[in-house]
Amino acid sequence: MITNLVEYKQQYRESNLEPEEFWTKQASTLLWKKKWDRVLEFDFYKPEVKWFIGGKLNITENCIDRHLTARAHQTAILWESNDPSEPSRKITYQQLSVEVNRAANMLKANGIQKGDRVCIYMPMVPETAFALLACARVGAVHSVVFAGFSAGSLVDRINDSNCKMVLTADGAYRGDKRIDLKSIVDEALKKCPSVDKCIVLNRTNLSVSMQPVRDLWWHEEIRKTSDVCVAEEMDAEDLLFILYTSGSTGKPKGMVHTCGGYAVYTNYTFKNVFQYKEGQTFWCTADVGWITGHSYIIYGPLSAGATTLMFEGVPSWPDMGRFWHVIEKHKVNIFYTAPTAIRSLEKAPLSFVEKYDLSSLQVLGSVGEPINEEAWHWYDKNIGKGNCPIVDTWWQTETGGIMISPLAGITKTKPAFATLPLPGVQPAIMDEAGNEIEGNNVEGRLTIKFPWPSMARTIYGDHQRFKDTYFSTFPGKYFTGDGCKRDEDGYYRITGRVDDIIIVSGHNMGTAEIESAIDEHSAVCESAVVGFPHDIKGQGVYAFVVTYDPVHEPIHLRNEIKDVVSKIIGPIAKPDKIQFVSGLPKTRSGKIMRRILRKVAEGETSNLGDTTTLLDPAIVEEIKKGAIS
Ligand code: 7RM
C-alpha cells in the first residue's frame, strides 16, 4: 500500500517504466489458482487487451474464502434498510460464504453453467450481493440492470446478451414508494425468449403471479441447496460481467469486464485511494446497478476484507438527514457519494446535518460528475468538519475502477480537481487535430495511452462499435469522451463530456465550468448549462438554475448570477438566458440529461427523444413551459 507522496511518485514512475513488473506485484497480493504465463498483451489499434494471460482464479475466493481464516466473524456486509425502524443486518464473512455457496448451487440446480448470462434486477438487499457473487462463483456472467429501469429497457438488456435467467424480487422499497419489480419482469419476459428461469426473492410480501416452471421462489430454491460449491476455475480473461451504459446515440452498450484484471485493479484502487485500514466501515451510496456499486460496494471492499455498508433507501427519506443518521448509527469511516446527492442535501437546513455525530468519518469521496467548488467546500466543511480528505475520483463504467484521484490524506487536494492519475494510468491530453498536448496549463480531450488491468475488453456482441467509440477518434489511444485541463501542478480537472463543450464567440467553454461559477451564488443550489443557436455569438449560454428558496425577484437574481459568472470566468461566459426551475432532468444514476435541456434551449419542445430513463419525467413538462425564447 502507498503510505506517502514519495511512495506514490515511486510507484507511479515504476508503473510507467516497468508496467509488467508493477502489476505483477499488485496481482501477487491476490489468490490465484494458477499463476499467469505472461502479464500483458495489447494492441490499441485492433483493439485487443489481455492481462495475466494463462492465470486462473475465482474472484469469490478473493472476496470470501481467503478471509475465512483471519476474519470469519467480522462483518462483511452491513445492511441498512430503507425503513429506519427495520433492524439492520450484519453478514459476517462466514455467513457470506454460506449464502454465496448456497446461491451458487441454486443457480447450478436451475441449469446455469459457466459462461451463461444471468440478469440481476433486484433491490439493494444483501441477497443481491449474494447473487452477483454466486454468478462469479459458478463462472456465469452477471448483467445487473438497475431496478429503476422500465420493462422496455430490461428487454433490450436481456436480449442483447441472451440471458438465460433473471434474478429478481417481488418488489423494492425506495423511500415512501414501492416498485413492483416482478410485474415489470413479467411484462419484459414476454419479449425475452432466451430466459427460461426467473428466481424471485420475497422482499416486500407482495402477491405476485408466478408462471409455472419458469418462476421459482428464492427461499424455496435456497432451502434445497448445500453450502459447499467449489469455485469454478476461471481464466483471467474469462468474462466476469456485462454492464450496460447508455451511449450518446443508439442502444446501450454492454461493457464487458473480465475476471483477472478487474479483480486486481478494484482491489488495488480500493485500498490505495481510500487508504482503507483494517476494521474500517466503508459506505458507497451508489446502487449495485451501476459500476460504482459493482467495484466499490462489492468487489473492491470485499476483496480487501473490508466491512461494506449497503443502503437500500434514498437520501431524502424519511427526511433529508437520512445519510447522516446512517453514518452516526453505523460509525461509518469512509463515505463515498455523488455530487448530485451532495447538492440536493445542501439544500436542506443545516440542522439535518448538525443533529448527528459524524465524528467517525475519516475520508470522503465523490464520483459521477465534476464536483463544483461550492459543493466541495460544503462537503468539506459540514460533513468532513474540515478534517477529512476528499477524494474526487474520476472514472467510467468502461474503466472498471478509479483512474484519476487523490489518495486520501496523501495527495494535496484542490477543489474540483480529480488531481493525479493513479499508478498504472497514463493520461494524454489531445488537441482537436489529434496531437498530444504536452506540458502543464493545457486543456483538451482526455485519452489514456496505455492499458490498465480493469479496462473493458469489448462491447458485448459488437467489437466494431467498441473500436469506433473508444479507439478511432485518436488512433492508438483510448478516448474517454471527457474534456479536461492540466494545471500548473500537473493536476487534472475534468471539465465534463466533450459533447458538453459550447463555443461562444469562438471561445471554447466547458458547461461544467460555467455551472460551477453559477453555483457560487449563495441562492443557487444547482444549475445546468447548455448552448443554444445565437445569431451573433454562434452559440449563446442558456442556464437552468435551481435555487434553495422560491425566487421573488427574478430580474434581480438573474443580474446577480451574471455578475458572479462574469467575475469568476469572465463576461464571455455570462448566461444569455437564465430559466429558474424546481429541478433538473436527471438519469437514474444522477447525471444531468443535457440532451433534453439542449432541445428546450433550441426552442424544440415536441420531439425531446427518449425520456423514459429519467428519474422524474414530470420535470420536463415544467421546463418546457418555462422555456425562454
Ligand atoms: C463512475 C461513473 C462516467 C462519466 C465520465 C465523466 C463523469 C465520473 C467524475 C466525472 C468529473 C469525476 N461511471 N465522471 N466521475 N466527471 N469528475 N470525479 O460515474 O460510466 O456512469 O460515468 O461520468 O464524464 O466520463 S459512468
Structural key phrases:
20 helices; 30 strands; binds 5'-O-(acetylsulfamoyl)adenosine; eight-stranded mixed beta sheet; alpha/beta; seven-stranded mixed beta sheet
Record the strand order, biggest sheet: 12-11-8-6-7-14-15-23
Assembly status:
single chain
Bound molecules: 5'-O-(acetylsulfamoyl)adenosine
* Biggest beta sheet attributes: 8 strands, mixed
Care to count the β-strands? 30
Q: Which shape, going by the Cα principal axes?
A: globular
Helical fraction equals 25-40%
Beta-strand residue fraction: 15-25%
Kindly, what is the distance between the CA atoms of the first and last residues, rounded to a whole number of angstroms? 56 Å
Evaluate the radius of gyration: 24 Å
Number of contiguous helices: 20
Structural class: alpha/beta
- Could you report the average pLDDT, rounded to the nearest whole number? 94
Q: Poorly predicted ranges (pLDDT <50, ≥5 residues)?
A: none
Characterise the protein shown here.
The chain is of the alpha/beta class. Helix content is 31%, strand content 24%. The chain contains 20 helices and 30 strands. The strands form eight sheets. It has an eight-stranded mixed β-sheet, with helices on both faces. A seven-stranded mixed β-sheet has the order 5-4-17-16-18-19-20, sandwiched between helices. Strand 29, helix 18 and strand 30 form a beta-alpha-beta unit. The chain is globular, with a radius of gyration of 24 Å. It starts with a helix and ends with a helix.
